[in-house]
């Protein structure tokens, strides 16, 4: 099999039971975890320039743990005390449960989608049309949620609370991978920023999500492995299929 070293553009899993480690052992590949992007906080001074008052809103929408962390960080820096009446709308139960890090879960009004998809989240939000929603986002983000909320005529404001930046490679770092795996268009942008003369040649590229796939193709690169699909709902399942085919196992 030609694939010996594989770079996954995400942080290394904290659990030893990650399916990535199973793939490495089963197919004899070396998997390295290295995020191509990183998140930096927006300062309270920068946030104030948006002229957004958090207490003007009756509900907050979270699609990721990162948004939760930076929302409560900014509230602390701005000395904003969130009232117990604040409602929280989360894209999934796991995101909702993460709120326990900052609030007493059972005493708050928390709503979440059953499937983890935007459509479910928006359906729940639409059942509470009188709320005024605040949506924490990165400076670089997709407009999917915005467009769906606008279509439902929801009263909401996007608030930039953190920024996504390229996680630069050092000039003397080796980059000898047989396969690269990406999870966001920002990861593709970071690859091209770090390696402006990148020549794909025999390097395989895998990605998760249609927007990332589009970014790969728009960059003129060849996409070899894509998830999710009906046969491979996760990135590891797609990699398993590809490695199995390559190895003949």
TrEMBL record:
SUPFAM superfamilies: HemD-like (SSF69618)
Enzyme Commission numbers on file: 4.2.1.75
Keywords assigned: Lyase
Segments forming domain Tetrapyrrole biosynthesis uroporphyrinogen III synthase: 23-236
Keyword Iron: no
GO molecular function annotation: uroporphyrinogen-III synthase activity
Domain of life where this protein originates: Bacteria
Xref: InterPro entries: 4pyrrol_syn_uPrphyn_synt_sf, 4pyrrol_synth_uPrphyn_synth, UROS/Hem4
Keyword Transcription regulation: no
PANTHER family in the cross-refs: UROPORPHYRINOGEN III SYNTHASE, UROPORPHYRINOGEN-III SYNTHASE
Name of the protein in question: Uroporphyrinogen-III synthase
The organism of origin for this protein: Parabacteroides absconsus
């Amino acid at each position: 099999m030609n694939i010996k070293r594989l770079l996954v553009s995400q942080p290394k899993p904290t659990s030893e039971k990650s399916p990535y480690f199973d793939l490495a052992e089963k197919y004899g590949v070396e998997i390295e975890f290295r995020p191509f992007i990183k998140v930096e906080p927006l300062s309270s001074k920068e946030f104030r320039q948006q002229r957004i008052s958090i207490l003007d809103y009756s509900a907050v929408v979270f699609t990721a743990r990162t948004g939760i962390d930076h929302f409560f960080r900014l509230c602390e820096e701005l000395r904003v005390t969130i009232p117990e009446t604040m409602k929280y709308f989360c894209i999934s139960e796991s995101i909702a449960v993460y709120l326990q890090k900052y609030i007493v879960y059972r005493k708050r009004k928390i709503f979440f989608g059953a499937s983890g998809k935007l459509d479910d989240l928006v359906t729940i939000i639409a059942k509470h049309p009188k709320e005024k929603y605040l949506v924490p986002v990165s400076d670089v983000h997709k407009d999917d949620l915005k467009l769906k909320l606008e279509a439902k005529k929801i009263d909401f404001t996007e608030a930039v609370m953190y920024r996504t930046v390229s996680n630069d490679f050092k000039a003397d770092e080796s980059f000898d991978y047989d396969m690269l795996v990406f999870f966001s268009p920002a990861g593709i942008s970071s690859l091209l920023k770090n390696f402006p003369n990148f020549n794909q040649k025999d390097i395989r590229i895998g990605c998760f999500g249609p927007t990332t796939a589009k970014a790969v193709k728009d960059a003129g690169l060849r996409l070899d492995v894509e998830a999710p699909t009906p046969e491979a709902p996760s990135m590891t399942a797609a990699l398993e299929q590809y490695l199995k085919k390559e190895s003949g196992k």
